[in-house]
Structures are given as structure tokens and as C-alpha cells.
Amino acid sequence: MASTNNPDLEPRKIFAAISHVGLGGEAPVLDEEFRGGQCRIFKVSFQDQEDLAIRVPVSNQPGIIPVVKAEVEILQLLEVKGFRWAPRCRGYSLSFDNPIKHPFIVLTWVKGSRLSWSEQYPQQPHRDSLLGQIASIQMSLIEYTLESRATTATAYFERLLKNRRARVREGSIPDILDQDCIKQQNLLDRVLDGEGDNMIFAMEHGDLKPDNFIVDDKHNIQSVIDWGFAAFVPVIRAAGIPRFLWPSLPLCRPNTVTQKDRESYTSSFASLCSPAAVYMQRWQNVADVDFQTLYLESLFSKGIHVFLAGIGWEIPSEKSGEKD
Length: 324
Prior knowledge:
- This protein is of the alpha+beta class.
- The protein is built from 12 helices and 11 strands.
- It has helices spanning about 10-20, 65-80, 125-145, 155-170, 180-185, 190, 235-240, 255-265, 275-285, 290-300, 300-310, 315-324; strands at about 30-35, 40-45, 50-55, 90-95, 105-110, 115, 145-150, 200-205, 215, 220-225, 230-235.
- A hairpin with a 6-residue loop joins strand 2 (about 40-45) and strand 3 (about 50-55).
- Helix 3 packs across helix 9, helix 4 (about 155-170) packs antiparallel against helix 5 (about 180-185) and helix 10 (about 290-300) crosses helix 11 (about 300-310).
- The model is unreliable at about 320-324 (pLDDT under 50).
């Protein structure tokens, strides 16, 4: 049963929650707390056991339980598949009936700090090294989860289009018009570029950005965190440009620094011939990669849908390219 109260996150309750799922050890200490947009994370250390992290989503809505369950299943699958870049799920509660009165996940704690990234930092050669590491992780995620499904890319995305249009028609999304949905639908074949019948799917992290990478003091990536948005998607989406290299709005094109980062990123796997590398080469080097990236995001994001509809589904970089 859902709770209308906030979670009880006193240290003793957090320790009790870990014990509730059969984990923990002697003399627990709450060492650190991290606050994210979707969750709060607490690091707990013990005298005789490995350090653990307890991840507590901030929402107390009834729908939070299937969200937590989905993340648990993703992490468990990645462990079974042998993908080494995600924290291990050590335990969980899919209920409000526990010491903190909220669903939670207990994860292995990964030593290090979140990757800082800006136009000035990190500097070379660490910058290119990190871009190569991130590309390798994206390839690894695709490689370990690649599978053929009974549905096509077109069918998958058309289901999203249909659901969005139904909500628009019932008035649930007042900022989007029915004609915007029709235009979006008409552009799908162009974006899929002859690959609409492709039935290959793979997992995407859903929020692959520097803040979700844990690095050591020598700029080596130790782990990728925050798998709450991960999902199996058509490979065109899974193999696309990572979020931190997306075009910036409202220009809809990368700035000079981001463009150089993209070139370094794609060059790191340009000579590789694994299936994942080939998919990434295919979809990160298409001529209209910026439009493709934003269009696919518009199928998931109402905000991007509204933005693209507002500029007539033709980004400025394309218009200027036609004039040249």
C-alpha cells in the first residue's frame, strides 16, 4: 500500500532498512549523503563488511514501486550479462512496509567521485581518454544486451507516437496540437533511414552524462550510476550520441567544443568492427545526426516535442546547410 508520508531517513532507520533485506554488518556508519533530482543516496560503511549505498527515490506516489522494480531488474540483468560498469544490486524493498517506510535499493558502493565536465575541464589528454572510455562503455552496454525481438523499430516508435497523440486528443498535453503529432508521425521514416524493419534492440542507459560516471583520481571511469531511466530500445536509439554530446538548444547544433568532443568520441571506435561499434558508426555519423537525435528524443520528451513543433520540425543547421 502506498504511503502519503515522506521516507524516514534517520541513520538508525537506514541501518535497519539494510538489515531488513539481510545485509549489513558490525558498527554501521552513515558516511555520506548525495541528493539527486530523482533520489537520495546514502553511503554506509561497516567494520566487517563491504561499504553499501542505499538509494531512495524521492517520489512517494503509488507508481514508484514499478519504477524501482524496473531498475532492480535492469541491474540484475546487467550483472547476469557480465556488464561490469554498473553497481551491483545487493538487496531491495518494493514496499512501503519497511523501516524507512519507502521502497529502496541497496547497491555496492563504488569509490571515486562524479566526473566533472565543462568546456574547459578536463583538459587534454585526459579529455580524449575519458571520451574513449565512455564510448567503450556504450559499446559494451550494447554488445552485452543486443537481442533480436519480435517487433520492429517502426512498430516500437509508432506505439509511442500513438500514445502521445491519444493524450493530446484527450487534452492531457495542451502545449501540443494534433497537427504536431501528425507531422511527427510523417517524419519517422526519414529518421529511420531505411531501417524501420530492423528488429535489433539493446539497452540504453537513458541519461548518459558525465555526472553519472564515477572516476578515480587518475581519470579512470569506475562505474556508471543512476540506471532509473534504462530500457531496451531499438538499436538506432541505443547506438546514438550520448546525451552530453547532444546539440544545444535553441541552435540545435553542437558548439565548437562539443563538436570536437564528438569527433574524438566517434574516432575512438571508427576502426572497430564489432556489431556495437558498427551500429554506433552508422547512427552517430548520419548527415542529419542533430535532427535525428532531437527527433527521437521528442518521442520520449514532451518538451522537445513542443520545441521541434515550434520551429516547424526543421532545425536551423539544416536550413543554413540548404542555403550553402
